Amino acid sequence: MQLIEHLNWRYAVKRMTGAKVPEEKVQHILEATRLSASSVGLQPYKIIVVSDEETKRKLSPLGMNQPQLLESSHILVFAAQENITAQHIEDYIALQMKIKNAPAENFQAYKETISNHLLSRTADANFNWAARQAYIALGTAIIAAAEQKVDATPMEGFNPAGFDEILGLHQLGLKSVALLVLGYRDEANDFLANAPKVRKDLKDLIVRFDAA
Ligand SMILES: Cc1cc2nc3c(=O)[nH]c(=O)nc-3n(C[C@H](O)[C@H](O)[C@H](O)COP(=O)(O)O)c2cc1C
User: Fold this and answer.
1) How many helices and strands in the chain, by DSSP H and E?
2) Which atom of ligand 1 is nearest to the CA of 10?
3) Tens digit of pLDDT for each residue in 177-207?
4) Which residues are CB-neighbours of 183 under 8 A, at least 6 positions away?
5) Residues with Cβ < 8 Å from 58, sequence gap 6 or more?
6) Is 153 in the pocket of ligand 1 (CB under 6 A)?
7) SS3 100
8) Cβ atoms of 155 and 65 closer than 8 Å
9) To which CATH superfamily is domain 2-84+121-205 assigned?
10) Which pLDDT tens digit goes with each residue over 107-162?
């Protein structure tokens, strides 16, 4: 039940105090995020961690000047790969071989299957797929932050091309898709602090096919 309490505690904070999140908590959130599931296991994204005030000041206008950006401790930028290349698949198979201490031939059939699937698609299709995997990681990070009693505001209200430019993401083969702003809620100034959580009833969200 503790997880449900953490999820009820969290909300998308609009005003933060500027207090710093301790590095070990940031690391814990990132480690949980690293363990996210992804399709094929490829983890086709990176997470850019911005804590430097100067960079935050440059990013803020591209995030519609939403106050939590400047009042945050860290901004996590979830950036998906622009495409999936043969090298990405090679690197993934090499990682499998290393971690499982197994020879290349064990992964040959798997490599062919995923290569045929991913390398035949357009860059656009692969980017959209990569972005969906990044959103799974975003969800993990939101939950991990709540468990650490760190406030975390997911954000799509920003200019991705502008963020990519400032952070040099194109050179890394990445495009930003979502943000997670970490910090601590400013209860006195946040109109949403202590607001009830608005969610559909479970009966309106779930469709079940159970045995009669
Ligand atoms: C993908 C995504 C994008 C969002 N973008 C923004 C945003 O740009 N700015 C903001 O203040 N809140 C943003 N939110 C927060 C939602 O408005 C909020 O999660 C939703 O209203 C549910 O409320 P709660 O998370 O506070 O419980 C976003 C949430 C998600 C999941």
Assistant:
1) 9, 4
2) 27
3) 999 999 999 999 999 999 999 999 999 999 9
4) 13, 16, 17, 18, 19, 21, 68, 71, 72, 73, 74, 150, 151
5) 166
6) yes
7) helix
8) no
9) NADH Oxidase (3.40.109.10)
10) 999 999 999 999 999 999 999 999 999 999 999 999 999 999 999 999 999 999 99
Contacts of 155 (CB under 8 A, 6+ apart): 63, 66, 68, 178, 179, 180, 181
pTM over 0.85: yes
Tell me how far the alpha carbon of residue 154 lies from the centroid of ligand 1, in angstroms. 5
Asked whether the beta carbons of 40 and 126 are under 8 A apart, the reply is: no
- Closest approach atom of ligand 1 to CA 63: 8
* 162 Cβ below 6 A of ligand 1: no
Find the angle CA(36)-CA(40)-CA(41) to the nearest 5 degrees. 35
Q: Which two tokens stand for residue 199?
A: 């969610």
Residue 185 DSSP class: B
Q: What residue's CA is closest to ligand 1, atom 20? A: 12
